[in-house]
Design goal:
The chain is of the alpha/beta class and about 240 residues long. It has 10 helices and 7 strands. Helix 2 packs antiparallel against helix 3. The longest helix is centred in the N-terminal third of the chain and has 19 residues.
């Protein structure tokens, strides 16, 4: 008899993105494991306000400490490895890993690997101002020979407002979709051949069907990578 899939621990930050990651793991598990089957999955979510307070004051150690609290609780209930369906707080992961009780999948590594496999070379980046100002994606992409184009300042600020004021609260407005569409159209004109949906809520309003570029859905790509790792039994 084959070994049971590994237990996936989800270190959540904002509810909408974490819920999409969780649903993807559960819904797509059947493709690998049979009808209605999916790996065991557990999620811990501190208050989003605690993360936002740390991000606003540039407190990466505070972000890391919150992530480690989730990691410890998930390890205590039997998770085998961890994923975080939030791109922004990955900037604190280097502070997390030396103290983590479990290994992690890095969302930007998953996206970068997928982009390279599909032959993309120059990627536009969307996300919160904290993410697009960080090295989370440029560093991972550069390691694979891929270029990264960030939003302009006004695009960044408007995207961040939409994400934090609307998307994390489950509010989806047509005008907000248009903001992302215009920014992605500009990225296409500047030579991008795909765009990273670098906030785990963005796939709720933008996808291949309404976008000028092929999309790299960080939320679902992370969930699928977690599924594969779980089924392979590679903690």
């Amino acid at each position: 008899m084959s070994a049971a899939p590994l237990h996936i621990g989800i270190v959540a930050c904002s509810a909408e993105g974490a819920a999409l990651c969780y649903r993807t793991i559960c819904a797509e598990g059947a493709q690998l494991l049979g009808p209605h089957a999916h790996p065991e999955a557990s999620m811990h979510t501190p208050s989003l306000a605690a993360y936002v307070e740390c991000l606003e004051r540039g407190d990466s150690q505070g972000v890391a400490d919150l992530m480690l609290v989730s990691a410890a609780k998930l390890a205590a209930i039997g998770a085998d490895f961890l994923v975080c369906p939030d791109n922004t707080i990955h900037q604190a992961l280097p502070l997390v890993l030396p103290r983590s009780p479990l290994p992690w999948l890095h969302i930007a590594d998953v996206v970068a690997d997928h982009a390279a496999q599909r032959g993309f070379r120059r990627l536009g980046l969307t996300g919160t101002r904290w993410l697009v100002d960080s090295g989370v994606y440029p560093e991972r992409l550069a390691a694979r020979g891929l270029e990264c184009l960030r939003p302009g300042d006004s695009e960044r600020d408007e995207m961040s407002r939409i994400i934090m004021d609307e998307l994390v609260a489950g509010v989806f407005n047509r005008g907000s979709v248009a903001v992302f569409q215009r920014a992605i159209e500009r990225m296409k004109r500047e030579g991008c051949d795909a765009v990273i949906l670098g906030c785990t809520e963005i796939p709720l309003i933008v996808g291949d069907a309404n976008c000028a570029l092929p999309t790299l859905d960080s939320t679902r790509l992370l969930a699928r990578a977690a599924l594969q790792r779980s089924v392979r039994g590679e903690a």
